[in-house]
Amino acid sequence: MSENRPAVTARAPAKVNLLLQVGPVRDDGFHDLVTVFQAVSLHEDVTVTPAADWGVSVEGAGGTDVSGVPLDGSNLALRAARLLAGRAGVDEPVHLHVRKEVPVAGGMAGGSADAAAALVACDALWGLHTGLDGLAALGAELGSDVPFGLHGRTAVGTGRGEQLVPVLTRGSFHWVFVLDPAGLSTPRVFAECDRRRGPGWTDPGADGRLEAVEAALRGGSAEALAAALSNDLAEAACALAPHLTRTLAAGRDAGALGAVVSGSGPTVALLTDSAAAARDVVAALTPEVGEGRLRTASGPVVGARVLEAVA
Ligand code: C5P
């Protein structure tokens, strides 16, 4: 009987893009990317419990505002669970409880982490043993960042961002994230990027940025990585949310080695060279942005995994 099965909790990480190189728009509407993802220690926990019907509930952890998260069939964790059930021929509904530490619509792939954690939790609950590659293929149907939420650590992403190759890294990197109460729509930021480029834009292709990020990661140098951070969506994000320019400058003024818009924004990622330096940046920024908008985290961390099975 499915109701007698234990609940399973899985945890998946947020990401920051160390490099986000945006190529031309494709026929399917997505853009070809060359990106470097790093998984960081802000997490989503998804608990799945056998239930009479499919459902989802959401809770904000550490002050995360979850008011923008849908609780209907469009919820990404719920879609992930139902997709896996459908493909595996499982007819055992679950209730999903999502505990969110990652900012909503913040450019840190919180929704994708929900999907990744839901896939791992349901796979364990139903005893499917799908494997990482199988779950990643399903995840790619749900969103470009879901496969990375499953893999975690540090990886180069190509295609839509769903084709991943691990990157050699040394040590940990220490981040401060400046959250934005507003949120930005990812499609809107990509569209603004296209609009700013105009119809005559041609892709300059490889320009050494990827190699610079890879060398900094191999060497474990926060200073070199800070110098190599770049994001082709930053200009578009700053055009749609002009205060981000000031946030980036404030982060540098507060002592961060580097500052970059995370993904499509509006979260700003500040790189520091130690956990203590990250705390100093938080202290320096608090009077301007308020402590409630600041989070510290480190990376790389592992991808989605089962946390516990409560008998
Ligand atoms: O795959 P995901 O659902 O995260 O994508 C959200 C939106 O972001 C897409 O509908 C598309 O507008 C944009 N996007 C893109 N190119 C990518 C990834 C996302 O244009 N590689």
Automatic annotation (TrEMBL):
Which intervals hold domain GHMP kinase C-terminal? 215-289
Q: Tell me the leader sequence span.
A: none
Q: Any idea which UniProt keywords this protein has?
A: ATP-binding, Isoprene biosynthesis, Kinase, Nucleotide-binding, Transferase
The catalytic activity, as recorded, is: 4-CDP-2-C-methyl-D-erythritol + ATP = 4-CDP-2-C-methyl-D-erythritol 2-phosphate + ADP + H(+)
GO molecular function annotation: 4-(cytidine 5'-diphospho)-2-C-methyl-D-erythritol kinase activity
* Main function: Catalyzes the phosphorylation of the position 2 hydroxy group of 4-diphosphocytidyl-2C-methyl-D-erythritol.
Q: What is this protein called?
A: 4-diphosphocytidyl-2-C-methyl-D-erythritol kinase
Lineage of this protein's species? Answer: Bacteria, Bacillati, Actinomycetota, Actinomycetes, Kineosporiales
